[in-house]
Amino acid sequence: MIVGVPREIKDNEFRVGLVPSGVHALVQDGHEVLVETRAGEGSGLADEEYAVAGARIANSAAEVYGRADMIVKVKEPVEPEYESLREGQMLFTYLHLAPAPQLTRALLERKVAAIAYETIRLPGGSLPLLTPMSEVAGRMSIQVGAYYLQKPNGGLGELLGGVPGVPPANVVIIGGGTVGTNAAKMAVGLGARATIIDLDPDRLRYLDDIFFGQIETLMSNPLNIEDSVAKADLLIGAVLIFGAETPKVVTRRMISAMKTGTVAVDVAVDQGGCFETTRPTTHSHPTFLVDGVIHYCVANMPAAVPRTSTFALTNVTLRYARKLAGQGLKEAVLQDPALGLGVNTYQGHVTCEPVARAANLPYTPIESLL
């Protein structure tokens, strides 16, 4: 199989779909790997490193898309890339289709076999290809929040950890999954007061145990969210519904009750966001104000630390890329149901139920098409 790795063109997206060791593994498996020139540059990976690993360096994205049977990316294709996709081609990347009807239509029209990192789900419910980027984004959310809380950056002028005689800042985290847990680790490490709000009492028990009482835990309901948001100096949105658009659990009225100069970071933005005031931003223009509250809603947060993010991502994606390249989609999905859950579109059909609901399109189980 020919595996293609194009250079990412989303705003300030510096990650890359494969590192040289991944190229080497695929070449050892008997595949040809095409890497677009400078694809790894943003992550500190030179063309020469890919060539030594066995890749063929392509001069253009058109060559990669035109020849490859499977495209391995990091982020979903942006509009200029739609025309490059072709029928029967496999696309292996983050997709987040629920809030992206235009991309969904493009994949269906071109009959692309689109496999989303974020919907590959193991029997226990874990999301192995989403986890490392959730870890990065969760930790980054506190760094970003601390930065924008500084007065020269438009913030309230608070230090997250306070100092003796001055209380620390209040960090409120909506969602106790991977993003929320990693945000709490960073907040506690910096000396802030952290509160995690979640729907699952067992998850709250777990978080209370691992943090040894250093955080406050609250059951998620509108009143608890409203009270906590009003007291927050830094608000983190960390809600995830598998494959679906994120519910808006923080309303505009709640945001309006926050102090001027406080910060709201919506990590859930790539699935639509969990604040009513959220709209996607970029690393070029990362923030906007709503009622005096600084909103940071960058949909590819981990791209700001591409060296860490690229290696963390490819640590978990490579084994699935090798399965798809070695067995083809049909056999790989039949042998690995978790991978089957990752298939979002196939032969012009939506094969992920939450995506079909969000797009108001018919849902076709992947098994019925194989």
Could you characterize the architecture of this molecule?
- The chain has about 375 residues and is an alpha/beta fold.
- It has 2 domains: about 1-125 and about 305-370, NAD(P)-binding Rossmann-like Domain (Rossmann fold, 3-Layer(aba) Sandwich), CATH 3.40.50; about 135-305, NAD(P)-binding Rossmann-like Domain (Rossmann fold, 3-Layer(aba) Sandwich), CATH 3.40.50.720.
- The protein has helices at about 20-30, 45-55, 60-65, 80, 100-110, 130-150, 180-190, 200-210, 220-230, 250-255, 305-335, 335-340, 355-360; strands spanning about 1-5, 30-35, 55-60, 70, 90-95, 115, 170-175, 195-200, 215-220, 235, 265, 285-290, 295, 345, 350.
- An 8-stranded mixed sheet has the order 3-2-1-4-5-6-14-15, sandwiched between helices. A 7-stranded mixed sheet has the order 9-8-7-10-11-13-12, sandwiched between helices.
- Strand 10, helix 10 (about 250-255) and strand 11 form a beta-alpha-beta unit.
- Helix 1 packs parallel to helix 2 (about 45-55) and helix 6 (about 130-150) crosses helix 7 (about 180-190).
- For the biggest β-sheet, the strand order reads 3-2-1-4-5-6-14-15
Sequence stretches where pLDDT stays below 50 over 5 or more residues: none
Distance between the termini: 19 Å
Q: CATH top level of the largest domain?
A: Alpha Beta
CATH architecture of the largest domain: 3-Layer(aba) Sandwich
Measured as a percent range, the helix fraction is 25-40%
Radius of gyration of CA atoms, rounded to a whole number: 21 Å
Main β-sheet description: 8 strands, mixed
Mean pLDDT rating: 97
Q: What is the strand tally?
A: 15
Tell me the name of the CATH homologous superfamily of the largest domain: NAD(P)-binding Rossmann-like Domain
CATH topology descriptor of the largest domain = Rossmann fold
SS content category = alpha/beta
Strand content: 15-25%
Treating each run of at least 4 consecutive H or I residues as one helix, how many helices?
13
Spatial shape: globular
Order of helices and strands: EHEHEHEHEHEHEHEHEHEHEEEHHEEH
Number of individual domains: 2
